[in-house]
Design a protein that fits this description.
The chain is of the alpha+beta class and 136 residues long. Helix content is 25%, strand content 31%.
């Protein structure tokens, strides 16, 4: 069976505020990625990730489960994505927020990405699905 896919990458992130008096504010839609070919991918807010998942995987779920795939199943899946996601917002002094951040994904199967977390961190993080090349 062929069906659309959500074309998203989820990455777990923990943001800890070690400050004693300043909050950290962030928006996950300000996060971005660049692949090894220089193509850019946007960060997604939680509601965008849920909608993208439901618009694609919910179709396949309905075909596979027939009459059992009702609105309650789709709603439960959306609730699980929301529960595990890192929503945009503030991190108060001395506390942390953690969860999954979502990005649009490249169409190819193997890639190396540089992830930029807006103003939270000056350097990009590297994420790769490629096997490391062995040294001879």
């Amino acid at each position: 069976m062929k069906h659309k896919t959500a074309r998203m990458i989820g990455i777990f992130l923990k943001i800890e505020n070690l400050s004693k008096d300043s909050r950290i504010s962030f928006k996950t839609s300000d996060f971005s990625m660049i692949d090894d070919k220089g193509e850019g991918y946007s960060g997604l807010e939680t509601d965008q990730a849920i909608k993208r998942f439901q618009d694609t995987h919910a179709i396949a779920l309905a075909v596979l489960t027939g009459p059992f795939a009702d609105k309650a199943v789709q709603q439960k899946m959306g609730e699980e994505i929301r529960r595990m996601s890192l929503d945009s917002g503030d991190v108060m002094p001395g506390s942390f927020k953690q969860g999954i951040i979502f990005f649009e994904a490249p169409k190819k199967q193997h890639y190396t990405l540089k992830i930029k977390l807006g103003d939270l961190w000056p350097e990009p993080f590297v994420f790769s699905t490629e096997k490391p090349k062995s040294k001879k």
